[in-house]
Amino acid sequence: MSAATTRSRTPDRLCAEAVDLARAAAEEAAAPGVVGEHVSLVSEGDRVVTHFFECKEFGYRGWRWAVTVARASRAKVVTLDETVLLPGPDALLAPEWVPWSERLRPGDMGPGDLLPTEADDLRLEPGFSGEDTPPPNSAVSEEMAELVEAEDAEVTAGPPASLPLAPSRGSISALAEELGMRRARVLSRYGLHIAADRWDESFGAKTPMAQAAPAACVTCGFLVPIAGSLRQAFGVCANEFSPADGRIVSLAYGCGGHSEAAVMPKPPVPPPPVLDTMGADEFPLRPARDGGSVSEPDGASEDLGHS
To answer: What is the pTM of this model?
Structure first.
């Protein structure tokens, strides 16, 4: 270990004794009455010491005022370097900042809020709006004009150039408009998958309601089909008494409001008990007069005495 390293770890005596100078600098930078007791000091290097003072300001629990003082070589005067407010080991710190795009959760948007979609959103992919220039290998490009005319000649009276209006049924724009594809972006395969997982988690086959249902939604008359590839697994519930009314439900989901459910069964009546523990049996207090084998003697109504 070199001598310079040893000196840097040992606080300079004059700098360590400059507590009053450091306190005055901290009180000048802070509000009145928020600089507390001297906590500790740390040697930052040769003739450079940082003094720490307790911070009593509300909202800064565990923070410390750090005042760094220094002394030039062979000088006897300590000068002020800087004064800052630093968190201590037990300081109350704000949580790490998270961008709004990562903090947003479903249901956070309100009336008037705008949620811009990023250009590279993985849930979307470019669609066809009909306004872009077709690629060279498309059916409406100049390179394919001769082939288009040859194909149209078989179904029309002549080539498209000789017709008053070009046939619109075979154009990409008309086809895109008919299929509902005139959008700048459409859902990507990833977007479809995460949407399906989210819907299946809320109204899918593994929910408690579906586990106790008499049948699945695929056979329910209240199920409204949807368009697109997701119609193979999902639909819209139109039963006002169902907990999923107006929601996207899985075809494997189900509830008690199924259109083909049987009539609600009556509450089961328990059978009579084998051993009746609730009834009471009647027992006579005296035996019947004609119930014994010995006939009653004459004068039985009189009191019997000893002979």
So the answer is: 0.42
